[in-house]
Design goal:
Structural class: alpha+beta
Helix content: 25-40%
Order of helices and strands: HHHEEEHEEHEHEEEEHEEEHEHEHEEEHH
Number of helices: 12
CATH superfamily of the largest domain: Zn peptidases
CATH class of the largest domain: Alpha Beta
Strand order of the largest sheet: 1-2-6-3-7-16
Largest sheet: 6 strands, mixed
Shape: elongated
Strand content: 15-25%
Number of domains: 2
Oligomer: single chain
CATH topology of the largest domain: Aminopeptidase
Length: 392
């Protein structure tokens, strides 16, 4: 471990230079050229480190990539992170990466360029130290996670199903917690069709779609807490054309979250009961949508991974706790495949998707060392993890 710690400490300057190179590229999900710039940077670095690299070309989004480091042992672990951000073109130029006291700030520095590099430097540290007691370590680089991984999930599924465990490099929580469970998430779209009429001359001949949508909003909000941990947010609403026209159309987007499959079933059933039900005469309602992320539950195997992470942290001289979070990630997808998964293994940071997004510089080396120690422990305790998976 001394050799690994020495490598990580001596590599911090390189890490920070790499971080600036990635943060200062516009790579919003819809910007294929920008995401591909990040991907090609990753490819060059992985090839320079003698890793095998595979490209998955996509037409509508940036390409996905998979890097593979082969060893001489038996265990297989997949790391995963995403190349894309939520920011529009021009953001990197208007506020490039900067140092602000103990923080490093910039678009995507936390979500999740910092985590990508923690994963890469952890694998490199093992390689440099000559540790090869594994069959393979793979790193999947997702290009459209911010949209829910609509294509990439089909690419990494057959890979991760062959793994003993998966580790997601989203940032640790602002208090340093790693993530052992995530809520499932879905989006429903409510469309109301009414009938237009002159609001002053003959409003009685119209059917007010906006008024009906107001009733729909109230009905959806009442579903909060329908099962433990279920939340509903009526987030985006639109309707009508002019103030003097009875609106003939309205639309609503609803965010739904659930902590477990029972909650998913409960909210699905409740929303199905609302579909087609109206209060305003002459209106029609249609509800479409569903869950794109199922809950990431804390299973026995997940708890075992948490324990191994805590042992690694203790050896490094600090404490790590685990947490449940309402946000979704690729960990939700992997959990649904019954592959043990742990998330929040990037640097400590927060305030994602906004101008104050940051990571803590002092967390970079310790969190990379934590990941190294966790990888080694999973490989050493692979048989125990397999027994827990089989007993579930």
């Amino acid at each position: 471990m001394k050799t690994i710690n020495s490598f990580l400490n001596s590599s911090l300057t390189d890490y920070l230079a790499d971080l600036a190179a990635l943060v200062n590229l516009d790579c919003g999900t819809e910007n294929k050229a920008g995401v591909d710039q990040v991907g090609r940077w990753i490819e060059r670095r992985c090839r320079a480190w003698d890793w095998e690299v595979q490209r998955f070309p996509l037409s509508d989004y940036g390409d996905c990539w998979l890097a593979r480091l082969r060893g001489r042992g038996a265990g297989r672990i997949m790391l995963i992170g995403h190349l894309d951000t939520v920011y529009p073109d021009g953001t990197a130029a208007s506020r490039p990466m900067r140092f602000a006291g103990p923080k490093i700030m910039g678009p995507g520095v936390c979500d999740m360029k910092g985590g990508l590099l923690v994963g890469m430097y952890a694998m490199r540290a093992l390689q440099t130290a000559g540790f090869d007691d594994f069959s393979e370590l793979v790193f999947f680089f997702n290009s459209e996670e911010e949209l829910g991984s609509p294509v990439s999930r089909t690419l990494y599924t057959p890979v991760v199903q062959q793994m003993d465990a998966a580790l997601v490099l989203e940032a640790a929580r602002m208090n340093g917690d790693i993530v052992s469970a995530r809520k499932g998430a879905g989006v429903y779209t409510v469309r109301v069709k009414g009938k237009a009429a002159h609001a002053g001359v003959e409003p009685e001949k119209g059917a007010n779609a906006v008024l009906e949508m107001a009733h729909q909003v109230i009905a959806f909000q009442k579903l909060n807490g329908i099962a433990p941990g279920v939340t509903v947010n009526t987030g985006v609403i639109s309707g009508g054309t002019q103030h003097n026209v009875v609106p003939e159309y309205a639309e609503l987007e609803v965010d739904v979250r659930a902590v477990d499959l029972a909650g998913v079933a409960a909210i699905r059933h409740a929303i199905a009961g609302l579909n087609g039900q109206t209060t305003v005469p002459g209106t029609q309602v249609q509800i479409q949508g569903g869950f794109s992320y199922f809950p990431m539950a804390k299973t026995q195997a997940t708890g075992f991974l948490v324990k191994l992470a805590q042992e690694a942290a203790q050896e490094l001289g600090f404490e790590v706790k685990d947490a449940v979070t309402g946000g979704a990630s690729d960990a939700n997808m992997i959990s649904a495949l019954d592959v043990p998964v742990l998330d929040g293994l990037g640097p400590v940071g927060g305030l994602d998707h906004g101008p104050d997004e940051y990571i803590e510089q002092a967390s970079i080396v310790p969190r990379t060392a934590l990941l190294v120690g966790l990888l080694q422990r999973i490989l050493a305790r692979r048989d125990d993890l397999t027994r827990l998976r089989q007993s579930a």
